[in-house]
Amino acid sequence: MVEASIVTCTFRPGLDIALAGMRDQTFKDFEYIVVDHRYERRHDEVMALARSYGVKLIHVPEHRRNGKWSVLSSAFATGFALARGRVVIMLVDWTYAPPGWLEAHLQHHQGTPKLVYGPYTYYRSVPELKLLQPFDFSTQSSRADARCIDEDAVLRGEILPEVCPFKDGPFDPAWLPGLAKEIEPHQDTRVRGPGPGVHYTWTHLKNESLLRSELYRLNGTDVWSERGGRMSTDTEFGLRAEVSGQALWWEPAAHAHCVNPRGTVCRVLPFGVDAERYDGRWNLADCKEYFARREREIRAGDIRAKSPVTLEEMEKRLAPWRELPRIDTSQLDQPDQVYFGGEIWPNSP
């Protein structure tokens, strides 16, 4: 048992920023769990960097993959099932958590259960990259999110080193003051004093924490959301936390620094097409219909995430992963019809 488990889900090249933050934490009773879509490409290198930083790392693949499609909720479920901390904290990749960040979260997890939110600063410039071959990164900011069906060269591993993508070596937090910050509407604009009263739509699953017991009561994240790419997985989670009775609590001191890779380095995994049911997946209208259904169900008391398996079942099945030196990923791919036991649509029972 540890006091905290920090969970990061990632599919992009580059893990040195997050590991630097874990190295620099002043509170040391934690474990770091990285659920990595690129597990096979970089496991040994990731573990070596973590050891050199003195970070207790559990580095694993998603428990379920679906070909080229994004499986973010399955990734979160994997990390949650492996976590043994009293408190679980979600942290987005390419993000540096400064010293004191962990204590800022943990101070609130005594007494009344809370979902604690921390802000983050987005940076729109990144340190100079170490390129394996020339690449026009302007295509990242102009990529049409409404149609996302293929991996690009960055995601295929052709452009950047897998762990330390910067020309000057592993990430150094001293670089942060020299980076340009994002501006609205691309910056995190949530600003207020500490305390309760956060609106559930502020949930981003990028810098939040809650008791592990409460996370299990919610059954983690909604895995049905993987049927389409425009799901409000984070908002749905926040609503369930609120309806479950947790206080939604803002803590400015739990601040993190995200060297935002979305518009400058690497966008997202393929998720589908807004206007059509591409490859049998849900389109944007389906996603909206499903969220409207879930909002009605949640407000009626259904706080458990929809998933083919419970976190309790996954905890037992994945327990050996905490100790395995290497995980066999050859049997992890499960198309939707296999994973869900048939077709599911927004109105499926």
Q: What secondary-structure arrangement, pairings included, does this model have?
A:
Layout: E1 2-10, H1 16-23, E2 30-36, H2 39-53, E3 57-60, H3 72-82, E4 85-91, E5 95-96, H4 101-106, E6 114-117, E7 120-122, H5 138-142, E8 147-148, E9 195-196, E10 207-211, H6 212-218, H7 233-243, E11 247-250, E12 256-258, E13 272-273, H8 284-299, H9 311-318, H10 336-339
Beta-strand content bin? 15-25%
Helix content: 25-40%
Distance between the termini: 38 Å
Q: What is the alpha-carbon Rg in Å? A: 19 Å
Structural category: alpha/beta
Please tally the helical runs, counting DSSP H or I stretches of 4 or more residues.
Answer: 10
Number of domains: 1
Average of per-residue pLDDT values:
96
CATH overall fold name:
Spore Coat Polysaccharide Biosynthesis Protein SpsA, Chain A
User: Based on the structure given, which CATH architecture is correct?
Assistant: Alpha-Beta Complex
CATH class: Alpha Beta
> How are the strands of the largest sheet arranged?
3-2-1-4-10-6-11-9
